[in-house]
Structures are given as C-alpha cells and as structure tokens.
Design goal:
Strand order of the largest sheet: 6-5-4-7-8-9
Oligomer: single chain
Number of helices: 10
Structural class: alpha/beta
Order of helices and strands: HHHHEEEEHEEHHEHEHEHEEEEEEE
CATH superfamily of the largest domain: von Willebrand factor, type A domain
Helix content: 25-40%
Strand content: 25-35%
CATH architecture of the largest domain: 3-Layer(aba) Sandwich
CATH class of the largest domain: Alpha Beta
C-alpha cells in the first residue's frame, strides 16, 4: 500500500498505536497548519491527515482499514543475513564462516489467527507428587481460562500408561475441564511414549490444516526404554503439521532427549527450575502459539557443493539447537510480529582462485489462511574469494 493511503504513515505512528497515540499525533500535526489552512475542502494535505485521523480514531473503521491493509499487502518475509566476513582468502585449506540469518514478518499482518488445537501431556509419575503436580495443575487451569470456544483442547496424563483426562474437543465447559485436571493423582513410573502417542491421537481428531496444532509435554524425569519410539513419533507428528514443545521440571530430566524430541518441528524445550515457574513457561508458550504468522519454517540446504553446514543454533524467538537429520533444517514458527533468527557455522572447501560465491538462503513456510499455504522466500548472500 502506497504512502498516500497508508494512514499510519500519514500520522507518523506505528500500527500498534493506541487511540490516545492517534489523538496526540493528529493534534501535533494540526499545529503545523494555521486555522485558515485547516479546511479539508481547500487544503488537500490537511484532508489526508484528517481522513487518516477519522479512520484510525474510530475502532470499527480502524478494524476495517486494517483488514484492507492485510489484503493488499504482499505476502513476504524480510530476510537479513550478516556474515562474519564478506570475503575469504585464496587457500588450499578449508575455511570457516558464520552466518546470522533473521526472517521477519511484514509490518501489516492480520490479527485474526487460526484457532489452537492444543494437547497438554502431563507426567503424573510418583516423582511428580506434591508441589510439582500441584503447580502443573494450576498452570493448566490458567491456560484453559485463556482459551476461546474456537480452540480445541485435550489433556493426557501418563506414568507407565496413559489416561485421556480430557478428550479432544472445543473449549466449551471450562469448569468440567479444570475439575478433571484436579483429579489427576501421582503414581507409577515414566514412559513418555504412552503419553505422547495418546496426545497425538487426540490432536488428529480434527482437520489439522484448519488449526495451529501443538503438543506440550511436562515431565520431571527420564523415559525408560521408549526414547526411539518417542523420536519417531515426533518426526511423524511434524510431517502431519503438529509441533512439539517439552519442558523439564526440576533437575532429573534428560535435556538432550527433550531437545531431540522438539527438533523435527522446531519447537521449544526448556528447563523449569522451580515448580512455581511452570505457570510462566506455559503462559508464554501459549501466547506465542496464539500469534502464529508462519508455521513450520524450514531452511532448504541448497548451498553450493563447496559449502557444508557444520552446526546451527536458533536464537529467536527462543534459543534451541538445530537438527540436521533431514535435508530441510526445521526452524519452527514465526510468532506474531517477532522474527526468527538463527546462526550457522559453515565450512568452505579449498578455494584456489579468485571468484564470487552466491549462498542461497531459501526459507519455506506454511502461511495459515493462504492458498497454497506453502511459500518459499529467497535471499542471496554474496561472498568473494580474493588473493
């Protein structure tokens, strides 16, 4: 949309500006016009300012205008790449370079999001007894209160077997859901696959492409004998459009396993030091899931043969090691107006001649509500080999 019709630019304010910000901006701009020039019929410049003010100060008209902005704004990602150096030397030896990549959503994005299809998988083994399980229950109750009737919720508890506490379905009666969560009791060992598989089955009850689909695991320990099955399930879930996040409570959980579990979908794993922090972690995770702009972002590894990727680490929206087990490196979701950023360490084969090397950064993502959903965004980073 051109500046002529961009009312936010006309008033010099951000799209997130409040009604008071709109009023203040308009009053300030009016000071530039003497009274006799504040006539929209004779002064086109003042007419533009007045039109922008009248639309943005009115909540209903502003919502309609924002929708128009979304419809007319091109679907895009802003990709910025910073290299640790812009040239390498002629050399008979390998050389290492670092690339920092940041992908940001466009300024104008819709506030309307796909509903959530959420499954909470709760460890109820004996070690969760007491404050840990009480804190998890309180956190789950808070999350349920924040969900809308358009969202789907399912809740699984597990030890050495899994129980469906709340079958997958719309959030219609929050009192019943919270009552069932209160009745979860600690007992038994820890077999995470039982809980994950039951949760995945509940999530698949709906048409997955119509939702933001996510499973959140809360556990305080190691799984016994089924780690390979868990990782295989995480891969299958990711291909089906279901993301995984996993949080370890206390000090006995297996951080390497949880990192591997969330890697296929680019989800989040984390350490919850104190049971009292469970609420903060869950609240922040749900907030991010409710503001998805792009899902299942992947980096296509189409680098020249002379370049190999050694390792990578996601920095935003949360820190997470990247997995290189598949041809496409899974980065997760762009949440709200915040970027995804990641760091790559790459190695160049020996470069005996002066040349220019193009490094293609190809990012593919699913854009909810768009047809087709799958879109590719490209940036080319140039690097020079010099004597």
């Amino acid at each position: 949309m051109t500046g002529q019709f961009d009312y936010y630019s006309i008033l010099g304010i951000d799209k997130r500006a409040t009604r008071d910000d709109v009023q203040e901006a308009f009053d300030t701009l009016c000071l530039n016009f003497p009274k006799k020039q504040q006539n929209p019929e004779t002064n086109p410049e003042f007419q533009r300012i007045l039109s922008a003010y009248e639309v943005l100060v009115d909540e209903s008209r502003r919502q309609t205008y924002d929708s128009l902005l979304v419809e007319t704004s091109p679907l895009s990602l802003k990709i910025e790449v910073t290299a640790s150096r812009d040239q390498i030397n002629q050399s008979d030896a390998q050389q290492v370079l670092y690339l920092l990549v940041e992908a940001s959503p466009p300024q104008y994005i819709t506030e309307k999001q796909q509903p959530l299809n959420l499954c909470l998988v709760i460890d109820r083994s004996t070690s969760m007894q007491g404050e840990r399980l009480r804190s998890v229950k309180a956190a789950v109750n808070l999350i349920v209160e924040k969900l809308s009737s358009e969202d789907n919720i399912s809740i699984i508890s597990f030890s050495d077997r899994a129980d469906v506490v709340v079958p997958g379905g719309p959030v219609t009666n929050k009192n019943i859901i919270n009552g069932r969560v209160r009745n979860i009791a600690a007992s038994g060992g820890t077999e995470i696959y039982q809980g994950l598989n039951a949760g995945f089955q509940e999530l698949k009850k709906v048409k997955l492409e119509d939702y933001t689909n996510h499973l959140i695991l809360l556990t305080d320990g190691h799984t016994y004998g089924d780690a390979a099955e868990c990782l295989d399930l995480a891969n299958r879930a990711s291909l089906a459009g279901v993301g995984f996040s996993a949080f370890g409570i206390g000090t006995e959980w297996n951080d390497q396993f949880l990192d591997q579990l969330v890697a296929p979908s680019g989800g989040q794993s984390g350490f919850i030091e104190s049971p009292k922090k469970v609420i903060d972690f869950l609240r922040d995770r749900i907030k991010g899931l409710g503001q998805i702009y792009a899902q299942n972002m992947r980096l296509k590894n189409e680098f020249p043969r002379s370049i190999s990727i050694n390792k990578g680490f996601k920095l935003l929206p949360f820190a997470q090691p990247l997995s290189f087990d598949t041809p496409e490196i899974r980065l997760g979701d762009i949440e709200g107006r915040y970027p995804i950023s990641f760091l790559l360490e790459i190695t160049f084969a020996p470069q005996p001649f002066d040349t220019r090397i193009n490094i293609p950064i190809l990012l593919t993502a699913d854009i909810p509500g768009q047809r087709p959903q799958d879109r590719t965004f490209k940036h080319t980073q140039e690097l020079f080999v010099l004597t």
